[in-house]
């Protein structure tokens, strides 16, 4: 099952693209600048066009982006069986090419994968979705966490 | 009266900032490219569903308006931390009268989003004054 294409419409892609630019302002410490506010004004229109399902995806992405600024969130502490279930679901989603599901399941696995691995998997997911700027942000974050320039490949998910 | 939420700055008196912006109590006016409303040739606000945007809950507000400090690891925001999430009203999020001269209309594709619109075609200054008149009724609610 591939990522549902109806979710990846022009409004969603425009919002994700603008969100990546807004994140860049945060990374540069310019999130309260007039330029950042002007960008937020541009984001209102695509936001209004998003469906509830798309808005939920964006909510999760914003949490992921916040982690890039404040450090990884401690997240939930799942039981062994929950961890196993989420790991299986992640692998199946990745194999099936359902990258939005990959991003969702990853949030339950932050105790299992290292922050660098999570960031690399997010980079891979956004790249496969076709949002290269968002992918670049996560890829650079993964490299920063990993401390090894040049290694930004996603870990093996078994 | 429906309950609505909006992300706005807080003024020195603890109430929402009165401002024709997306971060204040008011609407952005034409000819601004991001104007929230249309105005007809007579200077009246057109009753076409456009107005001051609100949501069912603060978690339904635009993610770029929700202050970043409210991130919980599962859902977050990329709004400035000087924004606050405000609540007005005490009923279900349903179309109807919100305050004197103001109504809530829902956005057709998403029942968690809405606009506060004028009940009648009134001059823009009248509409902005009606919005300002609700100021005392807004409280910060980020629970």
Summarize the structure.
The complex is a heterodimer of chains A (158) and B (143). Chain A is 68% helix and 0% strand. Chain A is mainly alpha-helical.
What does this structure look like?
The complex is a heterodimer of chains A (158) and B (143). Chain A is mainly alpha-helical and 158 residues long. Chain A is built from seven helices and no strands. Chain A has helices at 10-27, 34-48, 52-70, 80-96, 99-106, 115-129, 132-146. In chain A, helix 1 runs antiparallel to helix 2, helix 1 runs parallel beside helix 3 and helix 4 (80-96) packs antiparallel against helix 5 (99-106). By secondary structure, chain B is mainly beta. Chain B has one helix spanning 124-132, and strands spanning 4-9, 52-55, 83-88, 96-99, 102-107, 110-118, 139-140. Classes of the chains: A mainly alpha (158), B mainly beta (143).
Structural class category of chain A: mainly alpha
* Count of helical stretches of chain A: 7
Count helical runs of chain B: 1
Order the strands across the largest sheet of chain B as they lie in space: 2-6-5-4
Quaternary structure:
heterodimer
Largest interface: A-B, 39 and 30 residues
Structural class of chain B: mainly beta
Radius of gyration of chain A: 16 Å
Strand tally of chain A is 0
**Sheet bearing the most strands of chain B, described?**
4 strands, antiparallel
Strand content of chain B: 25-35%
Instruction: State the end-to-end distance of chain A.
Output: 19 Å
Q: Kindly state the mean pLDDT of chain B as a whole number?
A: 96
> In angstroms, what is the radius of gyration of chain B?
14 Å
Helix fraction of chain A? 55-70%
The topology string of helices and strands of chain A comes to: HHHHHHH
Uncertain regions spanning at least 5 consecutive residues of chain B = none
Instruction: Name the helicity range of chain B.
Output: under 10%
Mean pLDDT of chain A: 89
The shape of chain A is globular
């Amino acid at each position: 099952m591939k990522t549902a294409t109806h979710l990846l419409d022009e409004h969603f892609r425009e919002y994700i693209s603008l969100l990546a630019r807004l994140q860049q302002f945060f990374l540069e410490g310019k999130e309260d600048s007039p330029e950042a506010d002007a960008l937020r004004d541009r984001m209102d229109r695509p936001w209004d066009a998003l469906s509830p399902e798309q808005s939920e995806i964006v909510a999760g992405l914003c949490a992921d982006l916040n982690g890039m600024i404040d450090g990884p969130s401690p997240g939930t502490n799942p039981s062994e069986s929950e961890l196993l279930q989420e790991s299986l679901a992640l692998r199946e989603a990745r194999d099936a090419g359902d990258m939005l599901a990959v991003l969702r399941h990853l949030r339950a696995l932050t105790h299992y994968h290292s922050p660098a691995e999570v960031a690399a998997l997010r980079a891979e997911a956004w790249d496969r979705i076709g949002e290269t700027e968002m992918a670049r942000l996560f890829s650079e974050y993964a490299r920063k966490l990993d401390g090894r320039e040049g290694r930004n490949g996603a870990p093996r998910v078994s | 009266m429906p309950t609505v939420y909006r992300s706005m700055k807080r003024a020195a008196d603890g109430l929402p900032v009165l401002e024709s912006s997306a971060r204040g109590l008011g609407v952005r006016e034409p000819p601004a490219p991001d104007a929230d409303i249309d105005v007809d040739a007579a200077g009246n606000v057109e009753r076409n569903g456009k107005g001051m945007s609100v949501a069912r809950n603060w978690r339904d507000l635009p993610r770029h308006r929700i202050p970043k400090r409210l991130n919980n690891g599962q859902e977050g925001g990329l709004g400035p931390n000087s924004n606050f999430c405000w609540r007005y009203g005490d009923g279900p999020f349903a179309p109807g009268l919100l305050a004197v001269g103001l109504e809530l209309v829902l956005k057709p594709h998403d029942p968690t989003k809405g606009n506060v619109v004028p009940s009648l075609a009134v001059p823009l200054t009248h509409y902005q004054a009606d919005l300002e008149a609700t100021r005392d009724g807004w409280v910060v609610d980020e629970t």
